[in-house]
Amino acid sequence: MSMKPFPQQTVLVTGASRGIGAAIAERFAREGMNIVVHYRNSHEEANEVARRCLELGANVVTATADLRSKEQLMRMRDKLEKHGMMPEILVNNAGIAHYGLFSEVSEDDWDHIMSVNLKGTFLCTQMFMEEMVRRKYGRIINVSSVWGITGASCEVVYSTAKGGVNAMTKALAKELGPSGITVNAVAPGVVQTEMMDQFNEEEKAAIENEIPAGRFAQPDEIAALVYFLALPESGYITGQIISPNGGWFT
Fold this sequence. Notes:
protein biosynthesis; translation elongation factor activity; Rossmann fold; Elongation factor P 5-aminopentanone reductase; alpha/beta; Sc_DH/Rdtase_CS
């Protein structure tokens, strides 16, 4: 087990400048933990999240990197080492969506979606798991999607990428289990974030009517599940794909 008490551990949240990632960072910040707010381009938004985390009592560092670049990830790792903030908890949240007919998906589209959603998760996990193995303790939590479980029409590339994240989660859990590291994925249904802005009110209402809970999830609800999986008491939960989707898919 980690020698650090849980509130003294460090959490790295990728794609934490907005939406689910910001909510996750702030949930851990409420416990006064060490928070790494990762972003790629959204400097001002990341600083605002960091400010809120500081107000909640956390120790905070912001870090920028293109997760598709091993070189940039190495620079981020060096920065965290210098700050004494190598993570016990890694939340791979960064990702992008894609909507459109499969017949209209270009090779560039495919490469871009796979690179951000799947390669980025691979590289970031590989970069930070070595220290967890050395400590014989760690939590890796991947933010996936319900579409990675069920698939979605007109979201084939995104579904494929998130399905890959789910498969990686299950396999890596078996590989890292003997080292005291859990690996799980949270696969939300519809969450009220900026990603829903592309839908009009009529379309949103139609989707809500399909969900037994009758509403979209709030980012804080997803963050609560991520927090639970990070707890020391959750050490027997690993290799699981947990989908908070309001009963939409069971």
